[in-house]
Each structure stands twice: as structure tokens, then as C-alpha cells.
Amino acid sequence: MRTLTLDRILQSQGFGSRKYCRDLIADGEVTIAGTACTDYRTAFTPDGLRFTLFDEEWQYREHVYIALHKPANFECSRKPSHHPGVLTVLPEQFTWRDVQPVGRLDHDTTGLLLMSDDGPFIHAQSSPKRHVPKLYRATTHDPVTPALVQQLLAGVQLHDEPAPLSAISCTAVGDHLLEIVLEQGKYHQVKRMLAAAGNHCSALQRTAIGGLTLASLHLEEGEWCYLETEQLQALSPQSAAPGTSCT
Ligand code: URA
User: What is the DSSP string of the chain?
Assistant: First the structure.
């Protein structure tokens, strides 16, 4: 089984440069199984290794898969311009690990945002070929009518799109509240579809991706958690019920 020296383990987890990690270790800041390990050359099998740094417990992870309950007024872009980037909500070592959002939510959209440092995972999840349904709760400026729901289900033509885009499902859940499931992830898609249907989206929250719901994660706005195997499996197109679901 592969082993890594402690300085390399810390560096791989985003705790800083090799030199900085060696200094942390020499200063007795890193504890393993209750004992400070002060020799950076000590080798461990990294998988599953638990260590304490600055009195906080961590577990080695080759890659991280994160769900964030995105608050409003944070940008998903790599170079945020008008609002802070979503990475500023997470512990600093995730920036060192090059964690990136999987796809984008608008700065004013809240809800479920996946983040990872696993390039192939990000690529696969963001692929338009993947057809993972995403559930949104949209607050509308004008009342929701049966005609609006029908229009969104039948398809609306957006500027710059070759063909009309339709919702997989669309349900009025309040006078001014819609639940809408989309498979594509076009730029401002929910807002543009509502505008094309003659209404206006005044607030938007993403509440599920595939079979992974925000409610199941129990995260307040601004909170995050690691996603474990079962939750990652819920992101596959197969785990959402056909036609809708994001149950
Ligand atoms: N559709 C939008 O209009 N905005 C988002 O952030 C996500 C989907």
C-alpha cells in the first residue's frame, strides 16, 4: 500500500507549501492518534488517515466532493468581479486544493452547489450530455397561472437558442412560486424562460440535483458538507425518477 510522508500529506490536503507544512509539524501542531508527530519524514498510508491540526480533526481525502448551500451575493466564476467568490465561504485549504464549482449559479441564486477538486468529476457532471435533472424553486413577480405552467412545459424560444427549451416538469406551489425541473444548464435558463413566458423571476433557489436534495443535507445558507459515496451516487441520471425527478 502506498505511503506518503506527513509533510506531503498535509500539502496534498491544501494546508500550504511543503516548507510551511514542515514548520507546522516541527511546531507540534499535527497530532495523529492523540500524539504529536514532529518529524515530517514519518510516512503513513494516507487513505482514511485522521489527523488533528490546530485542534481541528481532518481526514485525508484524495479528492473532495462538497455540497454548499450557496448564499446570495456570491459569484461562481473563477475571477469574481462584483461579489466575493463562493470559495471564500469554504475553509482556505480548499482554494489551495483548487476546488471549483461544478457548473454555475447566478450571484443572486441560492441553493445546492457542488464543488470539487476532481477534474474528471467536474467535467462529467457539467457535461450537457449527462441529462441530470435539476430542481429549482422560482419566485415570480406576477402570479403563476396554469397558462404559464403550460407554456414552460410546452417550450419557450430563447434568444440565441436554435430550438425552444422546455421544463421536464413544472408545478405551481404557491401564488408566486413555481417548482421547475430542467435538464439543461443554459445561461440564466430559468430566468430567461420565465421572461420569455411573460413573467419575471424575482428569486431563485436550486433545491436538488438528480436524487440529491438540499433538504436531505440539512445545510443552512453558507454551510457546506462533504458528499460521501451514497450521495455521489444520487447525482447519477439514473437515480432521479424518469421524467422529473429530484424527489
Ligand atoms: N437558471 C438561472 O436563471 N439562474 C441560475 O442560477 C440557475 C438556473
Answer: ---EEHHHHHHHTTS--HHHHHHHHHTT-EEETTEE---TT-EE--TT-EEEETTEEEE--SS-EEEEEEPSS-B-SSS-SSS-BGGGGS-THHHHTT-EESS---TT-EEEEEEES-HHHHHHHH-GGG---EEEEEEESSPP-HHHHHHHHH-BPPTT-SS-B--SEEEEEETTEEEEEES---TTHHHHHHHHTT--EEEEEEEEETTEEHHHHT--TT-EEE--HHHHHTTSGGGSPTTS---
